[in-house]
Amino acid sequence: MSTTPGRRARGRPALSEHDQRRRLVEAAWRVFEQESEERVTVADIVREAGMSSRSFYQHFSSKEDLIAHLVEEVGGEILRAIEADFETPLADPVAQTARALGTFLELLPSVAIDLTRLEGTIGGRVVRLRQRVVRALTDVVHAHLVKLHAAGEAPRSPERAEVEVLVAGIAELGIRCYSEGRRQELLALQPALVRLLVRGLT
To answer: Residue 33's domain is classified under what CATH number?
Structure first.
């Protein structure tokens, strides 16, 4: 995350639409790191960004709209990072699975938002974004396991539905643990989760 930006100095050119939006997003990340999302207000975010409420509403319809954007942003980051983990092969498929799972758990806190408090269309949008991320992760993990089987490194090629059940379960467990402040408990489960993925899917 970048450092806290100050207000635009007098005489400096106005920020572009893209830079305004980016400043608000980065400010929101910093505010959410310090306080739960239910206690954070739009006023807190614009104060952190050094911008006005008017500027905020030019880019987002509400705080929940911004949260949906954050979830989507991190979902893409998680997917790209795990794809990179699988693109760089390790001799041991278990170690490769552990590396990818470690990446997932490391990035997951950014989307550990209690979505049950977000009602209406925005809450539904966030839930759909999470579902899209799980489906995309399922595709990546399934393709990896199919390759292992084709290379003779796994006894079978699992059904996609099997992969989705495990990926969705781990994602839900992770988000619940992080949102409830049980990070250490989740991290301690990592070896068991790796065994579950490797033994359950190969």
So the answer is: 1.10.10
Query: Does 91 share its domain with 32?
Result: no
Around Cβ 120, how many Cβ atoms within 10 Å? 9
Total domain count, the chain: 2
CB 193 within 8 Å of CB 129: no
Retrieve residue 66's tokens.
């911004």
Rounded Cα–Cα distance for residues 194 and 68 (Å): 29
Let me know if 68 is exposed, middle or buried by CB neighbors in 10 A (0-12, 13-18, 19+).
buried
- Residue 8 has phi, psi (to 5 degrees) of -65, 130
What is the maximum span of the chain, computed from C-alpha positions, in angstroms?
Answer: 67
**Phi, psi (degrees; rounded to nearest 5) at 92:** -100, 115
Would the CA dihedral through 54, 15, 42, 117 be positive or negative? positive
Please indicate, yes or no, whether residues 26 and 81 belong to a single structural domain of this protein. no
Task: Round the CA-based radius of gyration of the chain to a whole number and report it.
Answer: 20
pLDDT per position as a tens digit, 145-195:
888 788 787 778 888 998 899 888 888 888 778 777 787 888 888 888 887
Q: Identify which of 92, 170, 177 has the alpha carbon closest to the alpha carbon of residue 137.
A: 170
- 40 and 77 within one domain: no
